[in-house]
Amino acid sequence: MFQLDYRSGISICDQIVNNIIRLRSLKVLTSGAVLPSVRAMASKLAVNPNTVQKAYNILEAKGIIYTVRGKGCFISDDKDGQTAMLNNAKSEFLKATKDALRLGIPPEELIEIINSQKEDSL
After folding, report:
1. Rounded CA gap, 82 and 95, in Å?
2. How far apart, in Å, do the first and last CA atoms of the chain sit?
3. Are 112 and 105 in contact (CB under 8 A)?
4. How confident is the model at residue 78 (pLDDT cuts 50, 70, 90)?
């Protein structure tokens, strides 16, 4: 499914969340797809099951997955999943913007960066 980078400085939980969101946005994980159980995912990634459970709880709170008791965790339908991913992207962007401003990058430079990315994506 994906691999973790134990030296990245990003928590294992956040890496699991980010990778599942990435796979969802790439449509590798589609609406209704079942995620591995907490134990299976923990075993596969060689991490503590509590870490996987925390990641699944975060994903559920964001609306990217949902849990059916006794059945497992599933990827939310396209509309809900897309909305959740957009909200997550906005939240991450806001955090990155605040960090950049705090580090002294002028707002004008941030606008230039955004505009250059916009032009690259067209």
Report:
1. 20
2. 30
3. no
4. low
CA distance 57 to 59: 5
Q: What is the pLDDT of residues 86-118, one digit of tens each?
A: 777 788 888 889 999 999 999 999 999 888 887
The answer, as to whether pTM is greater than 0.90, is no
Give the phi and the psi of residue 121 in degrees, each rounded to 5.
Answer: -85, -10
